[in-house]
Every structure is written in structure tokens, then in C-alpha cells.
Amino acid sequence: MWTKAASDIPWGTNASVAGELVYAIGDVHGRYDLMTRLLARIADDVKARGNGRRPIVVFCGDYVDRGPESAKVLSALIWMRTHAEFDPHFLKGNHEEMMLAYIDDPIDARGWLNVGGRETLQSYGVTLPDPAASADYYRARDELLERMPASHLRLLQTLSLSHRIGDYAFVHAGVRPGIPLHRQVAADLLWIRDDFLHHKRRFEKIIVHGHSWDSDQPVIREQRIGIDTGAYRTGVLTAVRLEDGRVECLQARIDQPGDPVPSVSATL
């Protein structure tokens, strides 16, 4: 159990990651600027405490929508798969699911545009559809597929729903209480809120998740660690570092709108 209050940094715990150095990153939502700053912080952190370990970095989903640079974020994730000096794992979020649904059926999934899809289309240079013309949703979808690199679509289609390391399980939204991890369904892993957030007992593992936020601070509980801090609105993107017996948070903030944005290759 936790040996310090959630307001203290770092937090002590008896949980293990089997000797690994693990970082988990919350919902990026098109904030390439914050993501690169956070990765730079992680790179510096690894230099200070890596001790020869190759770090594992788990991204907890929701790379697209709401923020202005979804296309750039996806390009960066693809670059990381082969160039990063860490072992990356990319989880699927509900916003990736909505984007794929729009690609599959633009009419049935047109609600995606009202929850961040417009910004994603614009990040690819797609002209937004006319809501009064149903056929225009197909035109925007086709234009998106023309402009989107095939590697972006392949990434979206192959994202994982969960990842486990030691005493921790990483998901996007949470898990259904009372259901073993191996029997959790995609709908809950991607969308669950209240039933998971209000659950007071321990789960099979400590759940590290994004999806739900109410401030620019992470939520640390005995049974879960919430690392979505509303980056698209708060300007704060959060990661958690997990080591055996220790939990600590790192954050990236945009202090000045004109601050230069490092590239991914410059941070890793």
C-alpha cells in the first residue's frame, strides 16, 4: 500500500515492476508541443536514474482530437517505434476508436467531429464537411484517407488495449470492477468512468489509466493511478515513473506561447 499521502512526491509503495524503469504518459490529444517537452524530461530523467536500464514507455491512448497537431503526434509515435532509445508501447484510446469508426462509416460516426474530430481533420489539411450535406462527410473521409499516410492508419488499427508490467496494468479508461483482467472487454477498457473511478477496493493489479481528469494534477490511489491531466485544455501533460517501491510524476507545461518546440528526434 502507499506509504505517503497523495500530495507528497515521490510516493512509496510495495508494488513492483520487476526491476524495470517504466514511464506511462497520459492523454496527448494533439498536443505535440507538450509531448515533445515531456519526452525531453523523461530523457533527462533516464540519464539521471537509468543505471543502464532500457526504459519502457507506455502511452495510454488518445493521441488524436481536441488539440491542433494530431497528425504530427501520430508521425512521432511511428518514428519512436524504430528510433527511440526506449521500449515504446502504444495503447488505444476511445478517440482512436471514434476516428476509426468515422473512417469506416462517416455518417454513423459523424458525432466524432463534435468531440475533437474537426481538429484532427484540420491537422491533415482536410476541408471540414458541410453538416447540411450528408455526402460531404464521405468526401471529408476520402480526403482524409488521401492525405493520411498509410502508416498512420496501420498504427491506429494495431494499437493494444492493455499492457502489464509486474504489479501494474496499463489501460486507457479503466477496468470493470469484479471482472478478471483477462476477461475485460474493449468497451470498458476504452470508455468506462464512474463504476471504475468510484471503486474503492484493490483490483487484480494497480491500474494506470488516462481518459478522466478534473485538474492538471494526477490522481494517486491505492488501486489506481490516473494520469490524464487534460493537456488540450490545461496545457499540462503528465507522466508517471514507476520503479520497484517508488512512484513519481513528471509534467510538461507550456509557460510561454512562443517557447520553441523541440522535435522528437532532438529529445530522445
Mean pLDDT: 92
Q: Helix tally?
A: 10
User: Within the largest sheet, what's the order of strands?
Assistant: 1-11-10-2-3-4
- The secondary-structure element order is EEHEHEHHHHEEHHEEEHEEH
CA-based gyration radius = 18 Å
Q: How many strands, what sense, and barrel or not for the largest sheet?
A: 6 strands, mixed
- Beta-strand percentage? 15-25%
| E-strand count | 11
Point out poorly predicted stretches. 1-9
Helical proportion, percent range: 25-40%
Structural class: alpha/beta
Label the overall shape: globular
Distance between the termini: 33 Å
Organism: Sphingomonas mollis
Domain Calcineurin-like phosphoesterase: 22-212
Protein name: Serine/threonine protein phosphatase
InterPro entries: Ap4A_hydrolase (IPR050126), Calcineurin-like_PHP (IPR004843), Metallo-depent_PP-like (IPR029052), Ser/Thr-sp_prot-phosphatase (IPR006186)
